[in-house]
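Researcher: We're teaching a course module on how sequence relates to structure. For the next exercise, students receive a sequence and then see the predicted structure as tokens, so they can try to spot secondary structure elements on their own. Here is the exercise chain.
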Amino acid sequence: MRVLRGRAETRDEDRTVTATMLTETADSGEAAVRVWTPHRQIAFGRRDARADGFDVAKSVAETCGLEPIERSVGGRAVAYTGTTVAFAHTVPLADMRRGMEERYAETTEAVQRAFWRLGVPAQRGEPPRSFCPGDYSLQWNGKLAGVAQRVRTGSALVSGVVVVDGHDEIASVLDPIYAALDVPFDPGSVGSIAKADGDADPEFVIETIEALLVGDAEVTVEHVGDREI
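Model: And here is the predicted structure for the students to work with:
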């Protein structure tokens, strides 16, 4: 299994790294894992981009110092504050019609166990009117993580977000953004590892999640800064 570490210099280059993982896994048949802290940004989903208030929502993000981007996987808007952790796990596929629920379940369980190691007794589910609502979320005193999946011929990407700290900033930014998009949202639904009194050091969070996603696999480590993008 390949393990990619670090963050690219720009937001666009950083997104390219993760997108390329899908193609590389499909071509090589080798799984890959990446856990990192993306640049400050608001990642909007496809439904957000079609909403009447999308331009207003993007302006709110920019005013708050968060670059608006559109992503190809996942649902509604997600905020990355600079300490927010993202994870991506690509796996080879023989049949893209099979295994989706199993991949969701395995990844969600791995992230849940990582939370437990970090001192947070996270459980499946999410509070009402959470950011980026979905069936595979984890919560404890608020939503902590969400998981999404993208499938293409030859490989699948299971990815997600973990709120480490900064829950107040995330809530205050997403509140007017979700209002502009006409999507229900409760600012009090945003949790974080810090809010749950867990170990909120982003680097340790990254190490812990990476270890649970990798499991017992033999790994080859690559540093994102060394890759040609």
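Model: If you want an answer key for the exercise: The two ends are 21 Å apart (CA to CA). The first strand starts at residue 2 and ends at 5.
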